[in-house]
Predict the 3D structure of the following.
Amino acid sequence: MGQMINFKRPDGADCRGYLTGPSDNDKAPGVVVIQEWWGLNDQIKGVADRFAALGYRALVPDLYKGKVALDDAEANHLMTNLNFGDAATQDIRGATQYLKKTSAKAGVVGFCMGGALTVLAAMYVKDADACSSWYGFPPEEAGDVKTIRTPLQLHLAEDDAAFSPEEARSLEAKLRDGKVPFESYWYKAGHAFFNESGQNYNVEHAKLAWERTTTFFAKHLK
């Protein structure tokens, strides 16, 4: 099972995270797993454990520095106060660099708020070898997605109330314009359909999207 560790950000500051993976192989490919807006809770640790079961070293950086939200209002407050640029270029980049000390390759996967941060990582974390974003993307002013050269995968929900499907289609158009190496998939589901503890959980779509992500990572990381 996993454990809490400390790792260094590029700026030298410490960040905590949940690390799990095959106990006998510190050279296994790495995956940085980015939380939903709830924080580093048991559900996202469980996602990391699923990657570990597939032979990856998985690290979940604690972006909220120890805080975990129990309701929507608290989650919204924590997310609103998060510096997304700092989280992507420092916490997530530091986590990627930590894994790549021994892993030849490392990817980034994130959900909801973490999905937005995953797209930012594709833009700004050159250490990442592949990025899979689930129902989340950053606002336009966060940067030019056309500059992305890291293989990117998007999972998008047709009935997403948190991230507008219209904006998602505009994102796809920009990625095509920039000749970004990306693939995108749409699901007839609501936001956060992969989270088994949430109200929009959809077993069928969660399974399909998970298979697509694990196939994508096997291709680019293994």
In short: The domain at 3-221 is CATH 3.40.50.1820 (Rossmann fold). The chain has a mean pLDDT of 97. The first helix runs from residue 42 to 53. The two ends are 22 Å apart (CA to CA).
